[in-house]
User: Fold this.
Amino acid sequence: MRGVGFAAVVDGKSGLLASLKSGDAELLEKPLGPHFWRAPVDNDRGNNMTNADPGKNEWQPGGPGIWRRAHESFRPTTVTVTQSAPGRVTIVAAGKLESLNQFYRITWTFLGSGDLLVETSYRPEERATAEPPRFGMQTTLRAGFDNLAWLGRGPQETYWDRQDARIGVYRGKVADQYFDYIKPQETGNKEGVRWLALTDAQGRGLLAVGLPLLSANALHYSTDDLYCATQRENFYRYQMPDRPTVTLNLDLKQRGLGGDNSWGAIPHEQFRLTAWPLTYRYRLHVLAGGEDVGALAKQRVE
Assistant:
């Protein structure tokens, strides 16, 4: 798919967004696709979130641990392309998360304006035994796209049950979003995000707009970097890999952090991803440099 100043490719086999360019500059190091896992925080370790069944092997079915690699098992059975109007092309990738044997669908709608509407849905055929720690999508941006701006809660990290922060426009470097807990873990999330932009020194990059809101995160560490650190004793930030790329999560929600105690209490029900089916939408816009991202985010695009 090509437009003025941008180009995009959806892989016909995986159904994922495999390439996104601003001019000749490729933005994506890895495809944009489903993601359901977060690196455990201290409270998660206390309530055995990493185990598929508390006290049992991680890969036995039943608990949140089954979601760690569930995104890798998405296999579309159909990838359909339709053009419903001039300047509007829709690609629907529908199939199953094979590790869970559950229905999952991504809808990509490309518009002549250069915008990409994204919608994803998870519909279990029968209720699974564990909620996902997050419901969203993840990609990795190439090195250099490390200038972050967002309209939402901040400037500190916020979570579904940790939102004591002002709504405003905040800016900073991706490296500054990591909070240096004694033990590496999930960090840097932003709640109530109307829009988020990641750009390079020339202003090229990506704008994501919630429809209506997102829970979002951008870090130089991958989810697996943080997860593996939580599984090792006496492991600290200086031992983490030095990555110039940016792991970007655009989520409906993460489940809450909990914290009534750290010895088994799970988050309160209103902060859990248990109201299935799950679906959400957002908009992507490729930035060429010099745009007013706030004005672009306000534009009504359908």
Confidence is low (pLDDT under 50) at residues 53-61. The chain has one domain: 2-298.
